[in-house]
C-alpha cells in the first residue's frame, strides 16, 4: 500500500477509535438499570495504546466493539419482548430489533470491505439479465449498457459516498440536539418513573449517535481512500487508452484491418477484370457491364460489413458489436429516408438517367463532357487549364445532358487569344481555368471569375474580326457620293493597307454609301482582317480613319462639321428674344 494511503487510513482510524472510546466511557457512566450492558463487555485487562495498532487493525477492532454492543442490545430487546405487556410494545421492540439487525449487517459488511480492501457491492453485482426492452434488443444493448455503467462506476461511487457523508453530517447535529433536550428534561424531572423513561430515550439516542458516528467515519474513510487513489487526468487518460487498446481497441483494429483488406482485394479484382476483359475496356460500356458494376458496389458493401461484424463476433466483443449494429440500423433508417436519391444514383450508374456518359452537360454555367459515370464522376472541359473535375455521383441529380457535335466550342476563347468584352475591356487571355480567367489589360493582369467572364459576352478577335468606320462627306459632293467616291476610297485605302504590310491579313475591304445624315453624306468602310493582327485592333481602327482623311485631302473632298444643331439652337434663341420683346 502507498505511504500516503497508509497515512490517510491511519488518520481516519484514529478518529474513529477516539469516537468509539468516548462512546464506551459514556456507556459506562449510565444508570444502574443498564449495568448489565456494561458488564458483558470484554474489556482487556491491559488495553494497547492507539499508536501500537496499525490503522486497519484499529478500524476493525472498533467495528467489532460496535458489533458486540449491538449484539448485547439485541439480547436485551429479546428479554424485553418477553416481558412486554401490550402488542404495541412488542411491535415497537420488533422494529427496533430489525433496525439493530440491519446495523449489524452493515457493520459486518464494513468489516469485510476494510479487511479485504474490496468493494463488495461492485464485486457481488451481476450483469442485469432483464431489461424493459424486447428480448431481441436486450441481447444487443445489454453489454453496451453494462460497459457504460462500468465506465462511470468510479465517479458514481464517489458521488454516492459524498452524499452519504453529507447525510450523516446533517443527522449528527440533530441527534446531539435531541440528547441535549432529553438531558435537560432529566435534570428537571423528579418522578422516578418519568426519569426511567427519559433514560431509555436517552440510551436509544446515544446508540443512534454512536451508529451514525461510526457510519460517518467509515464513509469518510472510504471517500478519502478513493480520492487519494484518484490519478491525474493525463495519467488516467493514458490508462484508459492502455486498457482500451488491450481489449476493445485491439478488436476494433482487427475488424478495421479485415474490412480494409477485403475491400482492397475486391477492388483489385474489379480493376483486374477491367484490364483483362475486352468488354470492360470498350469506350462505351454496355448496360450489362454497368449492371455488373452496380452489383459489385452492393456486394462490396455487404461483404465488407459482414467481415467487420464477423471479426467482432469471433472476438466476443459484444459492446463494439452492439455499437456497430446500432450504427447499421441508423444507416438503414437514413437510407430509407433517402431511397429516391439512391434510386436516381443507380439510374445514373446504369446510364439510364438524364445525364449520360459521353454527352455534354452544363455544370456551374460551364459546358463539360461526361467522361465516366461512377461513384465519383469525371467531367472534362478540354478548353480549360485543369479542366478535369471529379465529383460525387449525387451532384449530377437534376442535371440534363445532350449529344454534342465535334465542332462545338467548349469555351469562347483559348489562351493567347485577344478578346473584347461588353464592359469595353480589350486584352489577351493569359490563363483560363474552371474558376478564373486572366487577361493582359493595358500591361496588367485583370482577373474575372469564369462565370462573370462569360456574362461579359466576350468577342474573340483571334478568329478573324471586322472593323466598321463611318466617314462623312459634305453635301456639295452629292453627285459623286454613290459611285465615284466609294470606288476611289476603296482603291486608295486598300493600297495604303498593302503599303503598311497588312495585305496578307486583309481578308476583304468594301466601301458603301451608308446614309444622308443631318450635316453630311455618310460613307462606311468595312474591313475584315485575319486573327493574326488582333493585337492591333485599335491601331487598325485609327489607321482606317487616317487613310480616309488622306484620300479626301488628295481629291479635295470637303469633310463637314455638325452645323444643324448649332443653327437650330441659335434660331430658338432668336425666337425666344423676339417673344420677350413682344411681351414687353
TrEMBL record:
Q: Which SUPFAM superfamilies match?
A: Mechanosensitive channel protein MscS (YggB), C-terminal domain (SSF82689)
Sorted alphabetically, the keyword list is: Coiled coil, Membrane, Transmembrane, Transmembrane helix
Q: Choose one Gene Ontology CC annotation of this protein and give it.
A: membrane
Q: Any transmembrane segments, and where? A: 252-270, 291-312, 318-335
Residue ranges annotated as coiled coil are 60-117
- Record's InterPro entries? MscS_channel_C_sf (IPR011066)
Q: What is this protein called?
A: Uncharacterized protein
Origin organism lineage: Bacteria, candidate division KSB3
Amino acid at each position: 500500500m502507498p505511504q500516503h494511503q497508509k497515512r490517510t487510513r491511519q488518520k481516519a482510524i484514529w478518529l474513529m477509535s477516539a469516537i468509539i472510546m468516548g462512546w464506551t466511557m459514556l456507556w459506562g457512566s449510565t444508570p444502574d438499570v443498564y449495568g448489565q450492558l456494561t458488564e458483558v463487555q470484554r474489556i482487556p485487562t491491559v488495553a494497547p495504546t492507539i499508536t501500537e495498532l496499525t490503522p486497519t487493525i484499529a478500524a476493525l477492532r472498533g467495528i467489532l466493539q460496535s458489533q458486540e454492543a449491538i449484539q448485547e442490545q439485541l439480547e436485551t430487546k429479546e428479554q424485553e419482548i418477553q416481558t412486554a405487556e401490550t402488542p404495541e410494545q412488542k411491535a415497537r421492540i420488533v422494529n427496533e430489533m430489525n433496525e439493530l439487525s440491519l446495523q449489524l449487517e452493515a457493520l459486518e459488511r464494513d468489516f469485510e470491505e476494510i479487511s479485504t480492501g474490496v468493494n463488495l457491492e461492485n464485486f457481488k453485482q451481476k450483469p442485469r439479465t432483464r431489461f424493459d426492452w424486447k428480448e431481441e434488443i436486450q441481447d444487443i444493448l445489454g453489454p453496451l449498457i453494462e460497459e457504460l455503467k462500468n465506465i462511470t462506476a468510479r465517479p458514481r461511487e464517489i458521488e454516492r459516498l459524498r452524499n452519504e457523508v453529507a447525510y450523516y453530517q446533517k443527522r449528527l447535529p440533530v441527534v446531539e440536539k435531541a440528547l441535549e433536550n432529553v438531558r435537560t428534561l432529566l435534570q428537571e424531572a423528579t418522578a422516578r418513573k418519568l426519569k426511567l423513561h427519559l433514560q431509555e430515550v436517552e440510551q436509544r439516542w446515544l446508540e443512534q449517535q454512536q451508529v451514525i458516528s461510526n457510519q460517518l467515519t467509515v464513509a469518510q474513510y472510504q471517500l478519502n481512500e478513493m480520492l487519494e487513489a484518484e490519478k491525474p487526468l493525463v495519467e488516467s487518460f493514458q490508462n484508459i487508452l492502455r486498457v482500451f487498446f488491450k481489449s476493445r481497441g485491439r478488436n476494433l483494429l482487427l475488424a478495421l484491418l479485415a474490412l480494409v483488406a477485403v475491400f482492397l482485394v475486391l477492388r483489385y479484382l474489379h480493376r483486374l477484370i477491367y484490364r483483362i476483359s475486352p468488354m470492360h475496356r470498350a469506350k462505351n460500356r454496355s448496360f450489362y457491364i454497368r449492371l455488373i458494376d452496380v452489383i459489385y458496389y452492393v456486394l462490396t458493401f455487404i461483404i465488407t460489413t459482414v467481415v467487420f461484424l464477423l471479426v467482432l463476433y469471433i472476438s466476443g466483443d459484444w459492446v463494439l458489436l452492439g455499437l456497430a449494429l446500432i450504427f447499421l440500423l441508423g444507416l438503414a433508417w437514413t437510407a430509407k429516408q433517402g431511397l429516391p436519391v439512391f434510386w436516381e444514383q443507380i439510374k445514373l450508374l446504369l446510364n439510364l438517367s438524364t445525364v449520360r456518359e459521353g454527352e455534354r452537360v452544363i455544370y456551374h454555367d460551364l459546358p463539360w463532357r461526361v467522361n465516366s459515370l461512377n461513384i465519383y464522376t469525371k467531367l472534362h472541359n478540354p478548353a480549360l487549364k485543369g479542366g478535369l473535375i471529379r465529383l460525387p455521383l449525387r451532384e449530377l441529380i437534376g442535371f440534363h445532358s445532350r449529344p454534342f457535335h465535334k465542332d462545338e466550342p467548349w469555351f469562347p476563347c483559348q489562351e493567347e487569344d485577344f478578346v473584347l468584352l461588353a464592359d469595353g475591356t480589350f486584352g489577351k487571355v493569359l490563363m483560363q481555368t474552371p474558376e478564373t480567367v486572366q487577361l493582359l489589360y493595358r500591361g496588367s493582369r485583370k482577373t474575372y471569375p469564369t462565370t462573370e467572364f462569360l456574362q461579359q459576352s466576350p468577342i474573340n478577335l483571334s478568329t478573324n474580326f471586322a472593323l466598321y468606320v463611318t466617314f462623312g462627306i459634305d453635301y456639295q459632293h452629292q453627285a459623286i457620293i454613290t459611285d465615284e467616291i466609294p470606288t476611289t476610297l476603296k482603291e486608295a485605302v486598300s493600297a495604303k493597307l498593302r503599303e503598311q504590310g497588312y495585305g496578307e491579313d486583309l481578308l476583304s475591304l468594301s466601301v458603301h454609301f451608308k446614309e444622308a445624315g443631318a450635316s453630311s453624306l455618310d460613307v462606311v468602310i468595312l474591313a475584315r482582317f485575319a486573327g493574326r493582327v488582333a493585337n492591333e485592333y485599335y491601331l487598325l481602327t485609327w489607321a482606317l480613319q487616317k487613310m480616309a482623311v488622306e484620300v479626301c485631302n488628295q481629291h479635295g473632298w470637303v469633310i463637314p462639321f455638325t452645323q444643324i444643331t448649332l443653327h437650330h439652337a441659335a434660331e430658338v434663341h432668336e425666337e425666344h428674344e423676339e417673344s420677350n420683346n413682344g411681351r414687353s
